[in-house]
Amino acid sequence: MRVLVMLDGTHADADHPHIRVDDLGLMRGDGVFETVLVVDGQPRELGPHLDRLARSAAMLNLPAPDLAAWERVSQAVIDRWTGSGEFALKLVYTRGPEFGDGSPTAFALGMTIGPKTFTHREGGVAALTLDRGFDPSIVERAPWLLLGAKTLSYALNMAALRYAEAHGADEAIFIASDGSVLEGPTASIVLVEGDTMRTTPPTIGILPGTTQAALFRAAERSGWTTRTEPIHRDELKGAEGLFLVSSVRKVTRVHTLDGVELPDSVKLHTELSALYESEYP
């Protein structure tokens, strides 16, 4: 099932074309997006997602998004959704047609979550570490690389996932040239050691994770220590638990890394999942 609403509130048929073929989001990936999890009619972390949309738009010099309008169009999709209790709400904002009047293209699309996501949530995933091809020190020197912006230019991310799948894994974890752990193609990294959760900092050129932030809030209330700091690839295999965290996948454990089985983290996964869900009573 899909529900499509344009930013101006117009309800549209998702099975019919609405984007011009010369839209720069299509032609060049010149745009930004967010994906919000909706559960039983309630969007999770919509405010942080919209804040991140605005941050990404600013990095691309797109017009500042009208966040109130995005809230309204998000609710319009939710109100029209009649499918399963959980669905993905995708917010898309592009520079618009190449020779248009300068107006951005903007819409919200409700989408069914694929069965693979639920399988991975329950059973965990095997992951490969892949070289992302940059040193984190370049982030400040080269803002035009848009490191840390959630742009529509996701060809690299999808190529990484296809490479992982072609080599017997389900997911990828990007590593910087200095050995720093970055993020997954579509997820934040969370490492657990004892009563401490760690994740990697946005300053190294990655997206600040909305779901990771929610998990850390819940963990801190329950007495966990949380840290946002650099993590080296050598630390991944020795941790008590390694997890990929994102809006739609929620908390997913990594059971195998680069062909090596990791310590059993099933019980830990259950605990972290319960912590995350406690944010949304």
TrEMBL record:
Xref: Pfam families: Aminotran_4 (PF01063)
Key word Lyase present: yes
InterPro entries: Aminotrans_IV, Aminotransferase-like, BCAT-like_C, BCAT-like_N, Class-IV_PLP-Dep_Aminotrnsfr
EC category: lyase
EC number, as in UniProt: 4.1.3.38
Lyase as UniProt keyword: yes
Keyword annotations of the record: Lyase
Molecular functions per Gene Ontology: 4-amino-4-deoxychorismate lyase activity
SUPFAM superfamilies, A to Z: D-aminoacid aminotransferase-like PLP-dependent enzymes
Signal peptide stretch: none
Family: Belongs to the class-IV pyridoxal-phosphate-dependent aminotransferase family.
NCBIfam families: PRK07849.1-1, PRK07849.1-2
UniProt protein name: Aminodeoxychorismate lyase
Originating species: Actinokineospora xionganensis
